[in-house]
């Protein structure tokens, strides 16, 4: 069960080093963590995988080489869980999310999107982050067979008509401009929530 129904769910996907974490952190900063939380499907996966394999969870969450060394094995481990239950990690991340805007920062498979679409049909907006291979390489990406040509990276390459596409090739001003529409949508959807919070405050409740 979730703590409350969200007003908007931004379902982010994108290739390795396209900048999903960077862009979603920026949106959260602009909206404030009070209004917006970031849910990472890979967080419960990495936590359980780290526990079972004696690994460092914090390093698996980071953007460094440690995570990359373990990526292929984590992918197969996560896939075995998802095959048994496609909503396994989705249910875990929404548990306790209380803000009106949720950003799911790392959708990778159609089953991830389908779970949210079916549970929250009115609130979902799909967002793809794109960057050129050259930009991604500058950020540390190197093609890895078994990872970059597998479902984890290619599962949403076809068959999804994304609601928004954000190009993140490194120009801060261009990025800001592209986020305006999404931020406006989030503010519109949360206006009612903010008014309620303001009236609770002014009534001293
Ligand atoms: N617009 C940007 N300006 C400056 N640095 C950026 C920008 N976008 C991404 N980066 C940097 O590039 C690196 C990779 O970005 P990030 O971790 O957000 O990618 P990701 O898509 O989440 O990657 P992964 O799938 O490997 O977790 C990070 O060090 C991040 O700070
Ligand atoms: C194992 C996996 O969750 C790693 C994701 O790491 P990240 O989102 O790139 O930090 C990828 C997957 O689930 O296929």
TrEMBL record:
Under Gene3D superfamilies, the record lists: P-loop containing nucleotide triphosphate hydrolases (3.40.50.300)
**In Gene Ontology terms, what is one molecular function of this protein?**
ATP binding
**Keyword Ribonucleoprotein: yes or no?**
no
Q: Summarize where ATP binds, as residue positions.
A: 15-21, 139, 178
Q: Which residues bind substrate?
A: 168
- Broadest EC class assigned to this enzyme: transferase
The annotated pathway is:
Isoprenoid biosynthesis; isopentenyl diphosphate biosynthesis via mevalonate pathway; isopentenyl diphosphate from (R)-mevalonate: step 2/3
- BP term (GO), one: isopentenyl diphosphate biosynthetic process, mevalonate pathway
Question: What's the domain of life for this entry?
Answer: Eukaryota
This molecule's function is given as: Catalyzes the reversible ATP-dependent phosphorylation of mevalonate 5-phosphate to produce mevalonate diphosphate and ADP, a key step in the mevalonic acid mediated biosynthesis of isopentenyl diphosphate and other polyisoprenoid metabolites.
Which reaction equation describes what this protein catalyses? (R)-5-phosphomevalonate + ATP = (R)-5-diphosphomevalonate + ADP
EC number annotated for this UniProt entry: 2.7.4.2
Compartments where found: Cytoplasm, Cytosol
GO cellular component terms attached to this protein's record: cytosol
Where does it primarily localize? cytoplasm
Q: Keyword set for this entry?
A: ATP-binding, Cholesterol biosynthesis, Cholesterol metabolism, Cytoplasm, Kinase, Lipid biosynthesis, Lipid metabolism, Nucleotide-binding, Steroid biosynthesis, Steroid metabolism, Sterol biosynthesis, Sterol metabolism, Transferase
Identify the species of origin: Pangasianodon hypophthalmus (Striped catfish)
Its name, as the record gives it, is Phosphomevalonate kinase
């Amino acid at each position: 069960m979730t703590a409350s129904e969200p007003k908007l769910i931004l379902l982010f996907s994108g290739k390795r080093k396209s900048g999903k974490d960077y862009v979603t952190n920026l949106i959260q900063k602009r909206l404030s963590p009070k209004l917006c939380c970031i849910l990472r499907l890979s967080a419960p996966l990495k936590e359980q995988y780290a526990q079972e394999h004696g690994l460092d969870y914090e390093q698996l969450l980071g953007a460094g080489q440690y995570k990359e060394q373990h990526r292929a094995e984590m992918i197969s481990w996560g896939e075995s869980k998802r095959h048994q239950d496609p909503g396994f990690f989705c249910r875990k991340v929404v548990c306790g999310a209380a803000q009106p805007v949720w950003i799911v920062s790392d959708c990778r498979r159609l089953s991830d999107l389908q779970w949210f679409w079916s549970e929250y049909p009115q609130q979902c907006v799909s967002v793809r982050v794109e960057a050129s291979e050259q930009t991604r390489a500058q950020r540390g990406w190197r093609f890895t067979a078994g990872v970059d040509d597998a479902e984890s990276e290619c599962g949403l390459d076809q068959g999804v008509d994304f609601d928004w596409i954000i190009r993140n090739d490194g120009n801060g001003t261009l990025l800001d401009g592209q986020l305006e529409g999404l931020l406006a949508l989030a503010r519109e959807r949360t206006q009612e929530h903010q008014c309620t919070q303001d009236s609770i405050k002014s009534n001293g409740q």
